[in-house]
Amino acid sequence: MAEQTESSKAEYHGDGQYNADIVAKHYNQLQESGREARTESRIFYMRNFNNWIKSVLIGETLQTLKKERGHRGIAVLDLCSGKGGDLLKWKKGDIARLVCTDIAGTSVEQSEVRYKEMLNRERHKDQVFTAEFITADCTKVRLREMYKDPNMKLDLCSCQFSFHYCFESLPQAQMMLQNAVENLQLGGYFIGSTPHAQELVHRLRESPDMSFGNEVYRVTFDLPDKENIPLFGAKYNFHLEGVVDCPEFLVFFPVLIKLAEEYGMKLRFKKTFADYFNEQIENQEHRVLLSRMQALEPYPPEKDTEPMGLKDTDYKSADEFLQEAQQRESSDDRYRSRPQKIGTLSKAEWEAITLYCVFAFQKVKDMKTGETWSGSEVLSVEGQEDVSSVDSKRKRPLDKASTSDVTEEDVSSEGVDSKRKRPLNEATPSDVIEEKVAKSS
């Protein structure tokens, strides 16, 4: 296992005065809980739902790569890989090579142990992907210099629930992006999940102070005001029950798109978790996986079992849906003896889930050689504004600009459910799930 260099261990004082050691310490001290403890967690179904999102995103991307390139060995970089929670996803995806890297040394060690245990359980070990493990701060050091083979070609980089740490400063965001895509082959993908900056800003501006949340999560911003939010170093503390409690930074997506273009990357899509779920649940295989992963809470609960959320407030939409379903089916003899049960999420969990989005970039140009990818044409992306307007309007450096340099609509227009046109934090699971969830129960 490669170790972090001395320079990467040093405390970094960027615009946000952020010390990455806080994040590393948090995840190093985070105890691995057993299945029984996870089942009792208030956010058990939310965590499973998020894991389902990751599974679908990773699985769909691997399938796309195989279709575009044939079924040959796929090499993957798992950026900010944590304790190795996605190792089984990579195994199921039948990849050939994996590089795992994370800032938390203890997490990297646990990930390597998991990999070896997985390998030992296999009868045909030569059919399992090879792996290397690196402890490093990916926002400060160049990973290529730490690879066993610096010239290896990667097909995919995945960064799940961690990319936001790099937006402390422009140099850190650039280094993170360089690490993510530097070794990607033309046509390769960079995928991830991250807090949705537009939605965070929307909820911040709707709150009476600099904080908002519920019994499941709490976001507290460390900013002088709500209007002049910097494009880098927009710091907030994110608390998620029993999982996360550390500082993060807003990822203003128009900026990310612009930076990615400098590395030959083009955005394929960016979707809120709500929209991505609504799209992917149409797939029968994904619906089966949703049920198998217990990503939705059965409702009503079984006899003598309490729901995860608050009875009086968290399941109003589910109750309304059940009542409507009963009325529709009351005249049909086929349904009279069948108990009504659906899969859902508590309102508190849904409000937390709708803070996130997924994204996928594709490498379409080698910036050194000028070679372009000969695959299908890059998709146009509706609603993604070009941040170059910051340069042309205010004539200030990107790292000194703020969201006020872009129109108010650019910042907040994505913070609505695309179907209901209401703020995501006011939407409910039934607004997105409805009959599709009933199919998976």
UniProtKB/TrEMBL annotation:
Keywords assigned by UniProt, alphabetized: Methyltransferase, mRNA capping, mRNA processing, RNA-binding, S-adenosyl-L-methionine, Transferase
Leader sequence segment: none
GO MF annotation terms: mRNA 5'-cap (guanine-N7-)-methyltransferase activity; RNA binding
Record EC number: 2.1.1.56
Superkingdom in the source lineage: Eukaryota
Residues annotated as domain MRNA cap 0 methyltransferase: 41-364
Name of the protein in its database record: mRNA (guanine-N(7))-methyltransferase
Residue span of region Disordered: 380-441
Annotated GO CC locations: nucleus
PROSITE patterns: RNA_CAP0_MT
Catalysed reactions listed for this entry: a 5'-end (5'-triphosphoguanosine)-ribonucleoside in mRNA + S-adenosyl-L-methionine = a 5'-end (N(7)-methyl 5'-triphosphoguanosine)-ribonucleoside in mRNA + S-adenosyl-L-homocysteine
The keyword Transmembrane helix appears for this protein: no
SUPFAM superfamilies, A to Z: S-adenosyl-L-methionine-dependent methyltransferases
CDD domains per the UniProt record, alphabetical: AdoMet_MTases
